[in-house]
Amino acid sequence: MSYAAELYIELLKKCVGNFIHDDDLNLLHGRVAVDPETGECSVFEGQPVPADPREKYLGSIWPSRAHTMIGRPRLDNLHDCIRSVLADNVQGDLIETGVWRGGATIFMRGALKAYGVTDRTVWVADSFAGLPPNDFANYPKESKVPFDRFHELAISIDEVRKNFERYDLLDDQVRFLQGWFKDTLPGAPIDALAVMRLDGDLYESTMDGLVNLYPKLSAGGYAIIDDYDVVMSSNEAVHDFRRDRGIDQPLELISGGGAFWRK
Asked: Which residues are bridge partners to 217 per DSSP?
């Protein structure tokens, strides 16, 4: 892996996370109050507030301009996982479920291109219409946060495609899965995965990703949960899934939020 490729990838991180320029506003805080004890949120009709650079670095805000909100530590984790599966020849594609403006999947595609990988696909899975209503009847451990009310999370597929085009990274190694995860993931035409990155916030969305995609994750591949220790319902889904399937590989935390393990 060449020095030039690594330079490009580091620059790409700075671009998708908009660390080169400042984000003017944090779209999350100012409309949401977080309970420090439970981690749950309540929504009120306020205005976005100025973005804190440190919180943006950690992925703790919804930035007004960046193409991803996951922050630098989670981008570095994604980079490490991609390098690892390529170095170890772990078979399979890459996927993110819940892509927002597409920044993390743009980074995935850019990394594959920088490393000269032509036989893997990046799957971009999202409703492209925001999050579904909370289904407490079927998922009693569901988050109490009404994510479906956040219009800031509803980014159209056309806008995400346009963002890929801005980086010259929209090609036949990028495929889109549009719709609710419960509808698209069970029949997704994916043979094998090397990296699966779940960013669905809800218990239901996290579990949909785990149930339908983890069986396709190759040995040596990585399961990344963006919302672990950020939205507590995501923790519940991860714990229930790992317990029910006897998964005992170490669950490693990512600075600022998120966790992963290697299959």
From this structure: 193
